[in-house]
Specification:
Elements: H1 3-10, E1 22-26, E2 29-32, E3 37-40, H2 43-46, H3 55-65, H4 78-90, E4 94-99, H5 102-119, E5 127-130, H6 139-142, H7 148-151, E6 161-164, H8 169-179, E7 183-186, E8 189-190, E9 196-197, H9 200-212, E10 216-220, E11 244-247, E12 258-263, H10 283-298, H11 301-322, E13 327-333, E14 336-341, H12 345-357, E15 360-361, E16 363-365, E17 369-372, H13 380-401
Helix pairs in contact: 3-10, 4-10, 8-9, 11-13, 12-13
The structure holds pyridoxal-5'-phosphate.
Residues 101-103, 106, 134-136, 187, 191, 220, 222-223, 248-249, 258 line the site of pyridoxal-5'-phosphate.
Protein name: Acetylornithine aminotransferase
Cofactor: pyridoxal 5'-phosphate
Keywords: Aminotransferase, Pyridoxal phosphate, Transferase
Length: 402
Amino acid sequence: MNWMNRDQQYIMNTYQRLPIAVTKGEGNYLYDEEGNSYLDLFTGLAVNILGHSHPYLVQKLEEQAGQFLHISNVFLNTPAITLAERLVKETFPGKVFFSNSGTEAVEAAVKLIHKWKKQDTDEKDGIAVLGNSFHGRTLGAVKLTRQENVYQDFPAADYPVYETAPEDLEALERLFQEKKPAAFMMEPVLGSGGIMPASRSFLEGAAALCRRYRVLFCLDEIQTGMGRTGELFAYQHTDVTPDLLLFAKGVGGGLPLGGMIAREGLDTLFTPGDHGATFAPSPLSAALGNAVLDVLLEQGGLEQGKENAGYLWNSLEYLKVRSGGLLREVRGQGMMLGLRLQVSPEDVQRIQKQLLRRGFMVNVTQQTIIRLLPPLTLKPEDTDAFTGALEEELLKEVSIHD
Ligand SMILES: *Cc1c(COP(=O)(O)O)cnc(C)c1O
């Protein structure tokens, strides 16, 4: 029986899987059983920041694997200590809590926020979030995820959540006054919400409101972090500093790793017994995390990523002009882009399928937004191949509908 049939027989059906059995990943490309190659423009959903099988990462992985794969949290985890130290030095004074995934990073933040509001004298409770946000799928985090098809009617953990519209500082202030939430959590760029970047003035205004009303300002950088937007973390494009910063996805170089950085003053709230995880932080993941930081910060990876993103943006803007209105908008930041097409959801699906047939993997979110999460290593020739193929597919749309 083929892989697709076996997948359907033995693995629960929680993703719309493509019938591609990947046998190898190298650089910016994935290869399947039949020898087809695919330019990977969504990098395992913002995970493979440096493409596949990066030789330096593989070398560091092998080194760590030859030492130890797993130890308990009762011992000193040297790769994790090094990674935490570097993350703090690259962001703001505080401490790290590590988890295995993004949703667990959110869960940890929910528990830390709860401890903070209990010791704070104000009458505060709950967390404010933006409409269309995505913060994870476990029961605590899913409640913060304001997309109906994700949260559905699953029984969510019992704490108040208040939804407010993106870009509306007045509504946010009213919410702070009326509901007195303990924290405000947001993505600097709404990811699965359709690649909607927050404006700099909203981010800075929200941070100022949080300070004024003593509300913890929590940035979910699970998708935007690790150089994705051009800085190591997206908030570093602005003057704000969050109280809590959540990371995951790209941080483990392809292995499961997530966590949060809590600023000084919040970083001693957790004490032994408050929280933990058997596997996190995996020494393997932490070693890869250090390797990713080496490449981004010491081997010029971040700068190269910015250049590569600039080339991609220029090419797409140029395509937009030529597309006769079919490509309505290119939005996002750095290597996190949403292409808004002036076609129906069915047409977008057809374009996605056609691109896949031609060897380009793209993601679609919010039905009509093509989401690109390319590796920072995307070369100009990769961009040219992709924009050329996309232009041809857009032209076909014109002829189909003529
Ligand atoms: C992916 C994502 C999460 C959840 O991370 P998982 O590792 O899938 O649990 C949370 N927040 C944002 C912004 C994300 O993009």
